[in-house]
Amino acid sequence: MIKLRVLEILKEQNHTKYWLYTKMNLSYQNFNRLVNNETRSIRYENIEKLCRILNCSPDQLFEITSDEEAS
Questions:
Q1: How far apart are CA 12 and CA 9, in angstroms?
Q2: pLDDT beyond 90 at 58
Q3: Which residues pair with 64 in a beta bridge?
Q4: What residue stretches are annotated with the HTH cro/C1-type domain (predicted)?
Q5: Which of 6, 17, 30, 31 has the fewest CB atoms within 10 Å around its CB?
Q6: Burial label, 41 (beta-carbon count in 10 A; 0-12, 13-18, 19+)
Q7: Is residue 69's pLDDT more than 60?
Q8: What is d(CA 44, CA 49) in angstroms, rounded to the nearest whole number?
Q9: For the CA atoms of 24, 29, 32, 44, what is the dihedral angle to 10 degrees?
């Protein structure tokens, strides 16, 4: 399973979810699903936004976990 590391990156950078939410220009419902890995797809433009705002690359943004960890 592939998951976003947004919450971990925010913690590493001492930022809050709210800080990121104000910069993403998404509805709170969609934003929350995104950062909590509760979505089935993500638009390329949102990946780019996340990378620019968090100053990271796509490979830092994602991680692959085993199916057992996802449960």
A1: 5
A2: yes
A3: 2
A4: 23-61
A5: 30
A6: exposed
A7: no
A8: 9
A9: -50
